[in-house]
């Protein structure tokens, strides 16, 4: 039986539609950044003025280059999906490409698309929709090693940090998989479960399915969600933590934020508080859980104070502290492998 | 706009079908125990050999007595719903009674029932299905007072204790509402949200909707779910805790249990550990949260040791400690009103 995890096949072509601003193509640009080796090119409609920096292909060329999936990498401005997009998606589905998207509506609701896919045997993959058959969490110990990214808030670098850690582990020849828990992550990984959309009772079980038994020295690097001190979303964070049973975790933090983003009445927790709570709850399924690093977003800091801020957090926590976008994650991976020798 | 909460109308008739064992009629018997004043009678099919101790009525008599809802109070043995049950439910729906159930299938899937209800304008209320429109939790402070029952495990008296506390508060003339979070509780209350079935992201929001702003001295007594140390369900417990923002909580415990029921690898937490964790996480939305009592299930203890066990837990915790089924909840309500004078 297949595990209850969303899954689709590489290589892929990234569909950008006809948008004129990169802001609406974050998913597409992220796909090219993190999975360039699996991208056969970009499919752009005539009026598209943005460029992801990969070859332009049409449906036939994408198929000829081996593409198995078309990933919708842009958000249509204004909510609806334009007819011109739907026509191109139908053409791709008829040609046998699986269509992958994280739209607010189901792909099967786009006129003609379900029939086009059925005709060729292509699949429609909605990455916002959890797969059926997710069980309740058992808490049972699984083989292999796991690292979870956590944060002092939402949107502070948990996905990026996890991807960068996975990349650095692989660079060193260590077996590793990025495990995706949100829609963009699932598109990048080609696999995952959108945890925020899972029914509450099955959240720990979903996290367990996401990082199954593996080889003793294999690392699953799990994309974190929410924050353990977040008044709206902490339940997702807690379920993911206990179901993932991580050996190690990395705290992601934006040093300029003072309150929870969008919840201005709530003070941002300190890194120390997040570490303490994560260890306290994480011990339930992994008594040896420990923090191995801090990932800071320094992009909005004045250039001259960047090193100073990193050094201050490193001194405060006694942990390697990096901005993965600037410094990479090598110091954290050094610490990880020191604590958990391969 | 109506709040996103399941709601149906009293008085009700309880439908027991044709079962021959009280084990399958827990819901029906609970309804009669807790809401006798709103029950016009029981509707039994010819072969039914159990008796909830209320007058037998047919559909016409139930309507004549003012019933607005028929509540399915039995579980059909073997899973499916027998044709004889469906025929009687259709008759009741045609007569204008709302049909309320917590079945594994939707009421609308029973042959003819949706049409029968549509013909009279009756509603089909599935108490396992969360209402649409639940928002994300805001963490905003609400007026009024709240008490939450928590537990060292699932199925250790959280619903019963909450109902008994609500009853004792009302007996003393203090404004109080029992707030239901599970299917049986919702049937008893006529209102509630089945939290285990809510999508993870909206769990804190659902808990907020369940105990809205109220008069300053009004108590919402919220039915707890799961346990803060449960490897499968703690995310539900945590979301309910933070969304409910309780002023006070009561810990429910079965003194004979040594491991989490159904999770034998997990040691049952101590009452002290549950108090510490509940305070630690509950402070996020209510910094003054405190424990006001312990509710023990002593039914399986030898009679001579009951008082001794209660006294031991009272000494260990410094809190009033009762078995609500035997002793009532007066000592806990005394403590509550001492800590929070009306």
SSE layout:
The structure is a homodimer of 342-residue chains.
Chain A: E1 6-7, E2 12-17, H1 26-34, E3 39-44, H2 59-64, E4 69-72, H3 83-94, E5 98-101, H4 113-120, E6 124-126, E7 145-151, H5 158-171, E8 176-179, H6 183-189, E9 191-192, H7 203-210, E10 219-222, H8 234-244, E11 248-253, E12 259-260, E13 263-267, H9 271-282, E14 290-296, H10 306-317, E15 321-322, H11 324-327, H12 330-339
Parallel strand pairs in A: 2-3, 2-4, 4-5, 5-6, 7-10, 7-11, 8-10, 11-14, 14-15
Antiparallel strand pairs in A: 1-9, 12-13
- Quaternary: homodimer
Spatial gap, N to C terminus of chain A: 31 Å
Please compute the radius of gyration of chain A using only Cα atoms.
20 Å
Give the name of the CATH superfamily of the largest domain in chain A. P-loop containing nucleotide triphosphate hydrolases
Number of DSSP-assigned strands of chain A: 15
Low-confidence stretches of chain A: none
Based on the coordinates given, report the CATH architecture of the largest domain in chain A.
3-Layer(aba) Sandwich
CATH topology of the largest domain in chain A: Rossmann fold
What is the total domain count of chain A?
2
**Largest interface (CB < 8 Å):** A-B, 33 and 33 residues
Order of helices and strands of chain A: EEHEHEHEHEEHEHEHEHEEEHEHEHH
As a percent range, the share of helical residues of chain A equals 25-40%
How many strands, what sense, and barrel or not for the largest sheet of chain A? Answer: 6 strands, parallel
Shape summary of chain A? globular
Report the structural category of chain A.
alpha/beta
Percent strand of chain A equals 15-25%
Q: What strand line-up does the widest sheet of chain A have?
A: 8-10-7-11-14-15
- Average pLDDT reading of chain A: 96
């Amino acid at each position: 039986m297949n595990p209850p995890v969303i899954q689709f096949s590489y290589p892929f072509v990234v569909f950008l539609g006809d948008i004129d601003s990169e802001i609406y193509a974050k998913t597409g640009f992220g796909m090219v950044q993190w999975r360039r080796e699996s991208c056969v090119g970009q499919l752009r409609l005539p009026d598209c003025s943005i460029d992801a920096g990969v070859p332009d292909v049409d449906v036939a060329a994408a198929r000829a280059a081996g593409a198995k999936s078309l990933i919708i990498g842009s958000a249509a401005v204004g909510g609806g999906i334009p007819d011109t997009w739907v026509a191109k998606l139908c053409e791709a589905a008829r040609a046998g490409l699986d269509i992958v998207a994280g739209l607010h509506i189901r792909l099967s609701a786009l006129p003609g698309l379900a029939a086009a896919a059925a005709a060729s045997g292509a699949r429609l993959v909605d990455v916002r929709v959890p797969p059926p058959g997710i069980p309740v969490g058992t808490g049972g110990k699984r083989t292999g090693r796991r690292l979870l990214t956590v944060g002092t808030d939402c949107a502070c670098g948990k996905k990026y940090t996890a991807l960068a850690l996975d990349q650095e582990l692989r660079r060193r020849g260590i077996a590793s998989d990025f495990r995706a828990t949100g829609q963009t992550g699932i598109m990048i990984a080609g696999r995952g479960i959108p945890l925020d959309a899972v029914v509450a009772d099955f959240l720990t079980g979903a996290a367990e399915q996401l990082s199954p038994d593996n080889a003793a020295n294999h690392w699953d690097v799990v994309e974190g969600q929410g924050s353990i001190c977040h008044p709206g979303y902490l339940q997702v964070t807690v379920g993911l933590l206990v179901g993932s049973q991580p050996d190690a975790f990395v705290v992601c933090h934006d040093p300029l934020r003072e309150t929870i983003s969008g919840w201005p009445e709530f003070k941002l927790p300190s890194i120390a508080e997040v570490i303490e709570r994560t260890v306290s709850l994480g011990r339930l399924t992994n008594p040896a859980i420990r923090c191995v690093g801090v990932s800071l977003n320094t992009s909005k800091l004045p250039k001259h104070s960047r090193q100073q801020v990193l050094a201050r957090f490193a001194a405060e926590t006694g942990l390697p502290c990096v901005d993965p976008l600037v410094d990479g994650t090598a110091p954290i991976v050094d610490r990880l492998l020191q604590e958990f020798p391969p």
